[in-house]
Amino acid sequence: MTKFNKLIEKVLSGTSDSNIEFAELLRLLRHFGFKERLRGSHHIFFKSGIREIINIQPQGKMAKAYQVKQIRNIILNYKLRVNDENQI
Length: 88
Hints:
By secondary structure, the protein is an alpha+beta fold. It has helices spanning about 5-15, 20-30, 65-75; strands at about 35-40, 40-45, 55, 60, 60-65. A 3-stranded antiparallel beta sheet has the order 1-2-3. Strands 4-5 form a two-stranded antiparallel ribbon. A hairpin with a 7-residue loop joins strand 2 and strand 3 (about 55). Mean pLDDT is about 90; it is low at about 85-88.
């Protein structure tokens, strides 16, 4: 299992939302094809076909648990998939 697959499994499981590093979450969103815009410490992600705009900020080097949950819900609701050739 690749590092990226482990990250997806970790995010989708919902058991360790407070143990996801912010940098990992950024890589995950970029890998799913989200475009990024920065406003200070706020990383704003958007993607064609996705109504929600994702606005995340780090808490130290970790991602905030509620933001991980928000991203998990978007992945599941929109049935986002990754291409094997684009894995990290």
